[in-house]
Amino acid sequence: MAEYQGLTEQPDAGLIDRYRSHLKEIWSTAHAKWETVYDAYYFRTYPVWSGKEAAERPNWLKPARPTSIVDHSVDHQLSAEPQVHRFPAGEGETHELNADLTEKGLTAILAEAALLEPVLTWKLLGKYLIHYGYAIHEIGLDSRVLQRRSEQPEQEKGESDEDFKARERQAQHYRRTAMPFRTRVPHPSDVLLDPTEKRPLIAIKHTQRYSINLHELTVGRKNRGRETDIWEVGKNPWELILADEFWSEHWHALMASGHIGQRGGRHSYDQGRLLFVEPNTWGFVPYAHAFANFGMEKTGAMERDPSNLAVGILDPVIADLLAQAQAVSGRHNALMDATFNPVLVKGMGAEEVRDQLDQGDILEVPEEGALRRMEIPQLPRWMFQTEEWLSRDIEEGTVSRALSGIREQGVSTVGQQAILSTAAGKKFVGVSKQLEHLASVACSQILQLIDILNLDLTIRGHRIKPEFIEKDYSVHVSFDLVDPVIQLQQRQIGIQEVKLGMKSLETYWSADAKLEDASGERQRLLEDWIRSNPLVHQVLAMEVAKGMGIELLLQRAMALAAGQPEQNGAGPVSGRDREGERRRQW
User: Fold this and answer.
1) Dihedral, 455, 459, 461, 464 alpha carbons, nearest 10
2) Is the Cα torsion angle 300, 304, 305, 311 positive or negative in sign?
3) Of 54, 67, 223, 447, whose CB has the highest number of CB atoms within 10 Å?
4) Which of 5-9, 183-187, 373-377, 416-420 has the lowest mean pLDDT?
């Protein structure tokens, strides 16, 4: 085996296989916990009873509590709309204008990219952070879009000039407005990253791909003049193939790891087949990952185990959720026993009673009291109090009911409820910050790709190009949850501070009004001032008067309003003279 040369070493099938095996071993405990515990409770496939109890008691009744905890946490605490904040690359109006244009261009790119994904990108990223305590974001480039942007249409034989010009205009439009970026959220178990690095140096995307997709990918690369080993489809184009996509700051490679089989419950691998390897011209690994900060390292751990950090919101209350499900199941069984309690017979055969019940509601019995229902024991009150304790413990360990819109007992005012909601929401401050980090890294990588590939894009009417970026890829993205009442109070206080000279207008726009396009707002304010200027009104009125043919009358009216004598020494115009002048003008 060749000596390892570091991250700059060109990968081969053996090196990729070693990286994958190493990272899979590191993440094995975390992945097993996600699959057997977290997913079992979120999708409610966990067993309520085990052992011989499972055969005697029903397992189908499972409360929706674990699913609602995750969903409510995401819906009420994590926004799906990113707010882009771009810092000027230098001092001066030009740098501020470029920063504002970059902000609007990036915002349009993120909005357009969200339409290309089957799920809400940032909501799913937040859900993975809440549920698994870990999430990964991926930036991608659609090679088909880039290929189509680079194509130059040529007039075909027999094609009319009009048809060719139409195709040429379409190509020019596509070249300017096509959006090649993708913002994807792979499942956290599909991408293997180093848990000790916030910005990973090595990434392996270990997923299943259809055989036909591998064929189209390799053929497309071959047609573009890139060295590639063509993947042959075989008999079944929809056969699933395990593939490893390798990324480092220096190299990008794709390897087919083998056909999917089952041996002892694990995937089996054939000899890896390297389909292509190429230099990574992007200069970065297109993945970013983060932990939700619900977990922490254990004392005395010699090696970092990501299962201690990748802790989901359900982790501390798993036992409570199971106990609550068992309590609900037990009460439901008691309800069924009380509703369909058995009939006790005295002096009669059970067969005879069944035959009479089949005939109708009237039964013939030998004596009074021959038939009666079995008495069902009354459930003591402490049984219900036990479940209340479980519910409180689950709430204290996960998310407060106040975040679900449920008013606490004894809370009568909006202010009190707002205080409780704010306090409960602090549990998710770390999750929000990590989500902002992932989005900021993604936008920074998008700016770097625009600069490297020299892309000039117009997305939703907003243009972005390398000249606006100025070789500076820094950007910050936030996900602000807007409370209308609190925002109104902030804006009112901010206006007072501006009037008192304690705050600048631009600070008010960014901090209170949540307006990022400061340069554009200043331009619009100047335009409003110009439109409201009396001198501009006079000029505009004179232009309109010219069109109406009453320019002389307007000049006389303006002179009289200013207290000036009429031109040529003419005196004031009498009513009759004004009428004659008006007729002559018309």
Assistant:
1) -30
2) positive
3) 447
4) 416-420
CA distance 471 to 455: 13
Cα angle 440, 518, 110 (rounded to 5 degrees) comes to: 30
- Between helix 65-77 and helix 318-339 the angle, nearest 10°, is 130
Q: Which residues contact 493 (CB under 8 A, 6 or more apart)?
A: 512
Q: 175: how many CB neighbours lie within 10 A of its CB?
A: 15
- Are 230 and 247 in contact, with CB atoms under 8 Å apart? no
The DSSP line for 444-469 is: HHHHHHHHHTT--EEETTEEE-HHHH
* CA distances from residue 245 to 29, 241, 287, 321 in whole angstroms, order as listed: 22, 12, 12, 39
State which of 95-109, 321-335, 344-358, 566-580 shows the largest mean pLDDT.
95-109
pLDDT at 65: 92
Distance (Å, rounded) from C-alpha 100 to C-alpha 506?
Answer: 13
- pLDDT tens digit sequence for 461-514: 899 999 999 999 999 998 876 555 556 667 778 788 878 888 787 777 666 666
Q: Which residues pair with 476 in a beta bridge?
A: 85
- What mean pLDDT value characterizes the chain? 82
Enter the pTM of the model. Answer: 0.77
Which tokens is 103 given? 């902000």
Who's near 519: CB < 8 A, 6+ residues apart? 93, 96, 97, 100
Q: Reply yes or no on whether the pLDDT at 255 is more than 90.
A: yes
Q: What is the pLDDT of residues 332-388, one digit of tens each?
A: 888 877 777 777 676 677 777 776 666 777 666 676 666 667 677 777 777 777 888
Euclidean distance between CA atoms 310 and 292, whole angstroms: 7
With tokens 């100025």, the residue in question is 470
Q: Which of 211, 226, 350 is closest to 278 using CA atoms?
A: 226
Distances (CA, A) of 15 to 24, 272, 472: 14, 10, 35
Distance from C-alpha of 79 to C-alpha of 74, rounded to nearest angstrom: 8
Q: The tokens of 38 are what? A: 């977290």
Question: What is the 3-state composition of the chain as percent helix, strand, coil, each rounded to the nearest 5?
Answer: 50, 15, 35
pLDDT tens digit sequence for 36-92: 999 999 999 999 998 888 777 878 889 999 999 999 888 877 777 888 989 888 888
| 231 close to 239: Cβ distance less than 8 angstroms | no
Q: What is the spatial distance between Cα 324 and Cα 116, in angstroms, rounded to a whole number?
A: 41
Whether residue 446 contacts residue 181, with contact meaning beta carbons closer than 8 Å, is answered with yes
Q: Among 241, 251, 249, which Cα is nearest to 273's?
A: 241
Give the C-alpha separation, 291 to 258, whole Å.
Answer: 31
Token pair belonging to 397: 């360990």
Rounded to whole angstroms, the Cα distance separating 18 from 202 reads 12
- Greatest Cα pair distance, the chain, in angstroms, is 134
By percentage, how much of the chain surpasses pLDDT 90?
35
Q: Which tokens is 390 given?
A: 């479980």
- Fill in the amino acid letter for 155: Q
Strand partners, 204: 192, 246
Cβ-in-10-Å burial (0-12, 13-18, 19+) of 389 comes to exposed
